[in-house]
Amino acid sequence: MSVATARHFAPKPGNKAVSLFRDKSQKYKQQKKPQSKPIPWVDVSDEEPRHKDDKNPLKRNGAVVNGQEQGQRRKKPRHSSNGEQKDSSSGAGPSSASKASAIQQQRKDLPIAQGREALIEEIRANDVTVLLGETEVPQYLLESGLAGNGMIAVTQPRRVAATSLAARVSQEQGTPLGQRVGYSVRFDEKSTSNTRIKYMTDGMIVRELLSDPMLSKYSVVVVDEAHERTLRTDLLLANLKEIINKRNEPSGKGKGNPDPLKIVVMSATLDAEKFSKFFHNAKVIYVKGRQHPVKIYHTAEHQLDYVDSAMRTFFQIHTDQPPGDVLIFLPGQEDIESLQASIDLFARQLPVDKPNVLTCAMFAAQAQNKNAQAFTPAPPNTRKCILATNIAETSITIPGVKYVIDTGKCKEKQFLARTGGGGLDTLLTRDITQSSAMQRTGRAGREGMGVCFRLYPESAFKAMAPSLEPEILRTSLTSSILQLKCLKQDIRELDLMDSPDDDSVLSAFKTLWILGALDQRQQLTDSGRKMAAFPVDPVYACAIVASAGYHCTSEVVDIISVISASSKLFVDISDQRDAVAEQRRKFRHPSGDHMTILNVLRAYEETSAGEGQSGRKDKAARKEWCRKHFLNERTLIEAQDIRSQLRTVCERENINWMESALKKTAGAAAGSVNADGVIYEEDPILKALGHGLCGNAAFLQPDGTYKQIMGPSTVKIHPSSVLCDKKMPAIIYDELVFTNHIYARGVSAIPKSFFATHEPFKQKSA
DNA sequence: GAGCACTGC
Question: Pairing mode, if any, of strands A678-680 and A697-700?
């Protein structure tokens, strides 16, 4: 280790930098001005081998193990007899604290190009194999004939990964996408009966479990990115463990294996042992990765203000380091915009002999075309500086990045269960995990040697949690428990890698009971079975089922389609706030956000309607209309996909989705939303929503805040709501999020009388 | 008076 000699960038004293930091934000309270003290760096990584995989930008990198190497048991995962394998499998890290370095050592043992045959042999010999590092395992399996006549499923947590990997592999195989190699994600499937490798989201294969509990179509299931431990990956792993017990007869009992299933779990290094243990000490194989080395620097001391530290680090890089773009990881939009303003300001004061600086911000709420600017190469003599949230950590790879600045912070939603039913999401800034830090570091080494500046000491890195808590421990379980009920499984009896807290389970059971999906004995009800058929949160599934009784399924399905879409409907453009507000007023409905959403959707569908046959013209008109009204068209298009899916389910469940509460007076243009002749009968719509959201309700108090009906909290209406600052006697809301306050988001007013007469509420709130 | 990132029959 050595203290690096990087000079620091000292802003001129007395300039205006201070005012750029918003002191209303708590984390800047102590902020005086950019410190003039240099940041001492400590070099901890002399030559870490990194993956290089240009062909596969979506895949996770190998780990940057943190320096020191201890002598650990080495295992050569080469050809070995079966007897030996059982032993050596537990040798992956026999209760060792510093298994990471052992793994690092072992990773070097099997460069995949030479180890391919060995790898196939290992998988052939074992029911379950845990594989570390990135490989082209699915192709090898196919080419080796190991899969027999069955299919190979490769699961991914994200749909972009599933579709793009399928595209790449089918190209390598020289076959059209959807033939030999296909994929299956929601709304989109490209596979045929000839398909041998199917890339799919983990949610999709969990869905297949409902109709095919033995996954009999597949002879190999490759669970990729297993270390991410999504809720669906965990449920899949639990079921896979059951399935191999049933499908794979132990040899020696004379029955043979007529239809065995192979499981390959692909994971990052840190979690290998846990996966191995879960599958009764399954074989672990380490694969050497291929990426350029990344030099890692930690700060010598804790940094009080990571935004300021990031700025000074950027200018240290800019003035001292050779060309190459810089990627800065920050927790959220507020920090990004503040830092961007500071960097832009100081960049204008640079000496003329220094290259220019071009900053781009990246975060999910930002308009897509603005996010896309990060991909445009910088002009000559310009260093690009990308300021990004976690969006650039896994889902997106930005070319040209040579330097990474890691603040070590992120924002994360965490669900706080309440036994009273419902719950609360927190969205707070917190420290990242070690695997996240490694992931961020890896972003510097994709095209060549890179450098990563971590704005925290090495001791802080070591103190970080190794990886994120599995999703099953930090998310609402209502949806999963309802699904499992349909499989006749009980989450408390399932053999999971991590079992959820009792609180979380009880809270979910109570919510499902309030919704009428389960009875007092926790048995699935008829309407619960209906709800489970809808691919939306049970709260909204309940509203759809209830809407039939109010004859307004058309509107309720429309609204829920938009709420369930993955991206936000309203685009934020910080520097056009007034224009945004003005456009938004056009859709505002006095009853609140739900009817406002309906207004937007209907208005969107009316644009360019009746303009003739040209579909292309309509498309362009809609796009322009969305831009003008600061709406995210992707959300609306996705909502339409979801809607057609929901309508299909309605048909299957004998709910007439065409029933509408929309009343038109004579002469009004059909469906025109804001025309005077059109009146929504919103009461039935809100009442139907109220059936689902009755646990998410609050009454106005004299001081203007709202008090939860079925919980202890005092809540405020989120500033993004059309009802913000309005005093409504009673409200329902989509969710509670705790940031600076407990905010209700997605809010509508509902008659207070609804709660007096609403049957489930009357009985169950008592 | 404010918005981490994913995903599904």
Answer: unpaired
CB A207 within 7 Å, strand B: yes
Q: CA-to-CA distance for A30 and A630, rounded, in angstroms?
A: 36
CA/C1' separation A166–B9 (Å): 22
Pull the structure tokens for residue A585: 């007023």
**Residue A757: how many other CB atoms lie within 10 Å:** 10
CA distance A310 to A650: 52
Report the nearest residue to nucleotide B6, CA vs C1'.
A158
Task: Tell me the C-alpha distance between A495 and A543, whole Å.
Answer: 32
Beta strands in A395-499, from DSSP E residues, in sequence order: 401-406, 409-417, 423-431, 450-454
How many other C-beta atoms are found inside a 10 Å radius of the C-beta of residue A246?
A: 11
Structure tokens at A387: 């300021």
A413 CB below 7 A from strand B atoms: yes
Using the CB atom, is residue A494 less than 7 Å from strand B? no
Residues 6+ apart with CB under 8 A from A571: A365, A366, A367, A580, A630, A631, A632
What nucleotide is nearest A581 when CA is compared to C1'? B1
Rounded to an integer, what distance in angstroms lies between the CA atom of residue A358 and that of residue A361? 10
Enumerate domains of chain A plus CATH numbers.
2-47+293-468 (3.40.50.300), 82-286 (3.40.50.300), 472-514 (1.10.10.2130), 528-605+631-764 (1.20.120.1080)
- Provide the phi-psi class of A415: left if phi over 0, else alpha when psi is between -120 and 50, else beta: beta
Residue A309, SS3 per DSSP: helix
Q: Judging by beta carbons within 10 Å of its beta carbon (0-12, 13-18, 19+), is residue A764 exposed, middle or buried? A: middle
pLDDT tens-digit map of A316-353: 999 999 999 999 999 999 999 999 999 999 999 999 88
CA–CA dist A616, A490 (Å, integer): 50
Burial classification of residue A301, based on how many CB atoms lie within 10 Å of its CB (0-12 exposed, 13-18 middle, 19 or more buried): middle
What's the pLDDT tens digit per position in A545-563?
999 999 999 999 999 999 9
Residue nearest to nucleotide B3 (CA to C1'): A365
Q: Is the CB of A740 under 7 A from strand B?
A: yes
Query: Which 3 state secondary structure label does DSSP give A415?
Result: strand
Model pLDDT for residues A677-711, shown as the tens digit of each residue: 444 566 899 999 999 999 999 999 998 899 998 88
